[in-house]
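Continuing the series of single-chain predictions for the mutant panel. This is the parent chain; the variants come on the following pages.
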Amino acid sequence: MAKKADLTHESILVAAQEVLRTQGVRAFTLDKVAKQAGVSKGGLIHHFPSKEALLGAMHDHAFQLIDLQMQRILSEEPEAPGRYLRAYLKCNLESISNGIPSVFQIVAEMSLAEPELFRTKRECIRGMMAMVEGDGVDPVMGHIIAAASDSIWLQVLFGLTEPDDPHIHRVHDRLMAMTRE
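Parent structure:
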């Protein structure tokens, strides 16, 4: 029974992402999500008691995906100064190269429309920046490198730069070299 509940929970999250992707956060309703997921509104509310709870779960799910990706890449990075920063850069480049999942665009849109959702992740972001600061690279340089990488990622996310732009790899290579200086 728990497996069916997990599948329903997951199918609701996927349906909610699709509704947000196709209709935007301002048109997002529990009724539309329930219809997309093929469940009753009561069934949806059983898993997510409010629109805010569903949006929060979607936001949490996206951050879990980022964390899993980062942990995988970090486990492959040898122990050395700049290790965390290099993993961070590789994580961003991998997301760009593989096509940034629509869930990240949805998170960005939700963060703009529902800023309180993102405020709850401030500690997560602060923790990531603390890792950058304690990574054996000049902390200011670490922040500059991370910000540059994030800027490229966001440009691709919002369609301002194409993912196959050759400058992305050249900038990424330069940022990687800077983690070793």
